[in-house]
Each structure stands twice: as structure tokens, then as C-alpha cells.
Amino acid sequence: MTAWPRWFGTLFVVDIWERFSFYGMLAILYLYLVAPHSRGGLEMAPHTASALFGIYMALLFMAALPGGWMADRVLGARRAVLYGGALIAAGHLCLAVPVEPALYPGLALIVAGTGLVKPSMAAMIGEMYPGQPERREAVFSVFYMSIQISALFAPLITGLAAERVNWHLGFGLAAAGMLAGLVHYVVGLRNFGDLGVHAASPATAEERRRVLRGAALWGGIPASLVAVGLAAGVLTVDRVLMLIGLVLLVSPILYYRRLRCGPAGGPRLRAFVWMLVASAVFWLLYAQGPALMNLFARDAVDRTLGGFEIPASWFQSAQPLFLLLLAPVFAMLWTRLGARVGPPPKFVAGLLAGGICFVVMALAATQAEHALVSPLWLLTVYLLLVCGELVVGPVGLSLAAEVAPPGHTSRVLGLFWMFAAIGAAVGGRLAELTTVIPLPLYYLLLGVVGTVAAVGLAAGAGSLGRRLRPAPVSEKT
To answer: What is d(CA 335, CA 184) in angstroms, rounded to the nearest whole number?
Structure first.
């Protein structure tokens, strides 16, 4: 294997710090939302906090659409990462301010910044090993593994500070991590050469004006009306979350139809939609982790070890730990399997792991009805969920980069994250079922959803794999 370029090392370190801020904040956000006022929290009802958390996760994914467009058509991937990192840092600094109104501006800034950073970094990495999808899958798996170093320690640091000292100190530490990443990125730009310096498909002045007008009409005006409605008491947070959820459900479908009818369209993209649907189901399951499963860790798990009570947020370090240990195994597995096993069978395995993990979670919740349960239950669930993530994440990103035509990589990668947004939004809304059905039944329902999706994809995996393959050279000329 040829040596990786030096700019890959820079992106690697920057993503370590970006993931530190992301996972550090994610580990404490839901707990902060539901914590009582006496402990410095916002004292939201758990189902409202779950809905807000799901919408926030969905918007993080959805932001890849405008972020990908900005990177492809205006900024270029290099500047998109720089500006996005600055927005993320500003968002965390807002959350570090100990006033309740800072919550929503802080989350909005993080969403906007993540939308610029994630598709742009993935697009630059996607430039490696053109025409060699198996090797690119391995690179994405290594990249997935590497960033878990900081993701492992972030919840330990921010969680201890937030739960034992002050919630806003935890958010402040997340901001410090992103600022450190920005400094490293600026210093390392000299290693990038021409990579990402120009927009892949620059937009004309008229296209920019048209997009700006559309953003003001469909984004700025509705946001202003919602803000006025909330301030006047006409709208409630629950109603706003419901409206945003409806938009999140419809937007990815409309955007996919637009791409399919444009230059990016073709038989491979039409087949790719089934992989997008499968990924949405997986992210629906994944979204339960930092929300309800975090609450389960706080209320139902025996967290005492040698007289020390482990902070509930520390369980969020289980996922990056398992990712760190297992990612090299999966990278080696994809390389050895080569083209013999295509993306659809891999996705089947990922969905099946997600479904089984929630069957285990249902058993744990049943045990918790009588007494605090062993932390091994939750660790087993996170292990299975990570196995699914290591399939759906790297393989899905690699496949998105593979099916995208030249000049459309960031947008097709954005489409992948948009369908992940559907899963996160639906997952947050599904959590409201816990107010009317027992928790074990809710987790069992999630297990059934994942397993049925795996079986359905397996039934069509052969045909889907053939449609996803690139056309022979003779057919292109």
C-alpha cells in the first residue's frame, strides 16, 4: 500500500478534536435537558427532551445538504472545513454560557458548522484510491477508528465536569476541543497542495442569488415566524419540534428526486436509494443511545464501583472504545473480502446487529423493573450497536462516494446524511411511545424494526448488488 498523503494526517487530527467536542457535548446534552432546576438542568419532560434530541441529531445530518452544496459550489472543501469548525466552536461557547436562552442559538451554530465540516472532510478523503472501493472502505474504517481516540475520552472529561461540577463547564471543555482542532488545521494547510482549494463545480452568480433568495424565503422567514410565535406563547416547543420533524421527513425525499432527474441521476443512484432507506433504519436505532439509553444508565444501572459512583455519561465512552478496538478488524475484513461481498450484504449484517442489540435492551429493561441491573447489559448493547455502525457508516460513505459522478461527491454524501436525518428524527419521535407502553416493549419494538429491515434487504441483496456495480468501460464509451 502506498503511503497516505500528509494532508490525511492533518484531517485525522482535526477530526479527533471535532469529535472530542461532538461526543463530549453529546454525552451530557440529554442529561442536561432532563436534569431538575435544582441541579442546574432545564427540567424538560423526558419525551420532550427525546424529541428535541432526535431533531437536533437529524438536523446535524440534514445540514450536510446545504453544507455539501456550499463546499461543492461556493467555498471548496478546504474553506468549508475552516468556517464550519469556527461555527461549531461558537456554538459550544454559547452552551457554556449559564443562561437558558443560549441553548437554541448554540445548537443552531453547531448544526450549521457540522453541515460544512462533515461532507467536506469526507469528500477530501474520498479522493483517495479512485476506482478501488475496497481500499477506500478500509481507509474510511481506519478514519472511523482513529477519531474514536478522542471520542473515548471526551465523555469521561466533559461528563465528570458536567455532572459533578457544572453542566456549562462541560460544554466549555467541548468548545476548547474544537478550538484546538481549528488551530491545528490552519497550521497544517500547507500540506494540502491544491486539494479542496477550489469549488468542484462552481456556481454562477445567478445560481448564488437564486439560492440566497430561496434560503431567505424557505428558511429565514419561517424561522423568524417561529421565533415570534415562541416569544408570544402562540407556539410551544413540542409543536415546533413536530413542524421541524415533518420538514425533515419530506426534504430528503424531494432532494433525492431532484438529484435523480439531474446530472447525478442514473441507474446506480436509483439503486442507491434502497441503501439510503436501510441506513435511515439503522440511524433510527442509533439515535436511542445518547438519549433514552443514557437515561437508562442514570436510573436503572448499578453504577457503583469500589465506593465510586460512575457518572451516567461515562457509558457514552463505551461506543468509541468498541469502535477503537473493532475498526481495524472490520478494515482488514473488508480488504480480505474484496469485491466478493458487496455493500447490500454488509448492510444486512449491520441492520441485524442493530435489531439484536435492542432485543438485548428489552431484556435489560425487564430486569430493571425489579432492581438495578449490571452495567454489562448496557455494554453488550453498545457492542452490538457499534458492530452495526462499523458496517453502515464506512461502507455507506464509501458507496456514496463511489456512485457520485464527478463534481457531485459532496452532494451525494450529503444525501446519505439526509436519510440518516430521517432515522434520527423518527427515532426521537418514537421515544414518545414510552409514555404509553412499557419500556421493555418499546425496546422490543425497535428490535423487530431492525430485524425486519435486515430480512427485507437480504431478500433483494442480489439484484441490488448488480445494479450498484459500475458499468463496464465498453458500455460507457
So the answer is: 31
Q: Which three cell numbers stand for residue 349?
A: 449484517
R_g of the chain, CA atoms, integer Å: 21
CATH code: domain of residue 348: 1.20.1250.20
- The residue range of the domain holding 240 is 7-476
| Type of residue found at 420 | A
Name the β-bridge partners of 96. Answer: none
CB 142 within 8 A of CB 329: no
Q: Which residues pair with 373 in a beta bridge?
A: 301
pLDDT one digit per residue (tens) for the chain, 477 residues? 456 677 777 888 888 888 888 888 888 999 999 999 988 899 988 888 888 888 888 888 778 778 888 888 888 888 899 999 999 999 999 999 988 888 989 999 999 998 888 888 877 877 766 666 666 666 766 676 666 777 788 899 999 999 999 999 999 999 998 998 889 888 888 878 777 777 777 788 888 888 888 777 766 677 777 777 766 666 777 777 777 778 777 888 887 887 777 665 577 788 888 999 999 999 999 888 778 888 899 999 999 988 888 999 999 888 888 888 887 788 788 778 776 788 889 999 999 999 999 999 999 999 999 999 999 999 999 999 999 998 888 888 888 878 877 767 767 877 887 888 888 888 888 888 888 899 999 999 999 999 999 999 999 888 888 888 776 544 443
Per the domain annotation, does 147 fall within a domain?
A: yes
The answer as to whether 2 is a domain residue is no
Q: Is the dihedral of CA 222, 101, 31, 151 positive or negative?
A: positive
Q: Is 235 exposed, middle or buried (0-12, 13-18, 19+ CB in 10 A)?
A: middle
- What is the maximal distance between C-alpha atoms in the chain? 71
Alpha-carbon distances of 180 from 56, 105, 153, 167, rounded to whole Å: 24, 22, 15, 21
Give a yes or no: residue 112 inside a domain. yes
CB 350, CB 387: distance < 8 Å: yes
> Structural domain tally of the chain?
1
Q: Strand pairing partners for 304? A: 309
Q: Which of 252, 256, 281 is nearest to 456 (CA)?
A: 281
Q: Look up cell 439484536; give the residue.
A: 356
CA angle 437, 241, 24 (to 5 degrees): 85
Q: Are 301 and 378 a contacting pair, CB within 8 Å?
A: yes
Assess if residue 349 is contained within a domain: yes
Name the DSSP letter for residue 309.
Answer: E
pTM: 0.78
Q: Are 316 and 290 in contact (CB under 8 A)?
A: yes
Closest CA to 9 of 114, 116, 103, 147: 147
Write the CB contacts of 447 (distance below 8 Å, at least 6 apart in sequence): 355, 356, 357, 358, 359, 361, 362
